[in-house]
Design goal:
This protein has 136 residues and is mostly beta strands. It contains no helices and 14 strands. A five-stranded parallel beta sheet has the order 1-4-7-10-13, with no helix packed on it. The chain has one domain. The protein is globular, with a radius of gyration of 13 Å.
Length: 136
């Protein structure tokens, strides 16, 4: 379930998720575009212009292993992981682009206790205020 109470399907194909806003109280301050705890497969999905006050402007993964193919993160923002944030998650990422995402930590992607697998992933024009975080 997301902070807003919408169940994420096991598979999502051909969608654009835009202008999401996670600005509530935890956990409704993470995953501006999508918050996952299951192991979804996302194909041909674009996260554009989403916002979270905490983590995962576009996508927040927690304690899972999602599979993402042909996914774009464009112009999302958060405190951690402007495009995507992984917390105790091991996503499999293939053919992804992270373009123009912003955050305090991890402009394109932030990882806490996570080990993503990246194949053909491009980071372009993302920005973060800090390059290192001691408390993670």
């Amino acid at each position: 379930m997301t902070g807003g109470g919408v169940k994420i399907p096991d598979r999502l194909d051909g969608f654009t998720i835009t202008a999401g806003n996670a600005n509530g109280i935890d956990p409704s301050n993470t995953g501006g575009g999508m918050y996952t705890t299951n192991n979804p497969m996302l194909n041909d999905v674009t996260f554009k212009g989403n916002f979270a006050t905490s983590a995962g402007g576009g996508l927040y993964n927690v304690s899972n292993k999602p599979t993402l193919n042909d996914v774009a993160f464009i112009g999302n923002s958060a405190s951690e992981g402007g495009g995507m944030s992984n917390n105790s998650s091991n996503p499999m990422l293939t053919n992804l682009t992270f373009i123009g995402n912003t955050a305090q930590y991890g402009g394109g992607m932030a990882n806490a206790h996570s080990n993503p697998s990246l194949t053909n992933v491009t980071f372009t024009g993302n920005s973060a205020k800090f390059w290192w975080r001691r408390d993670v």
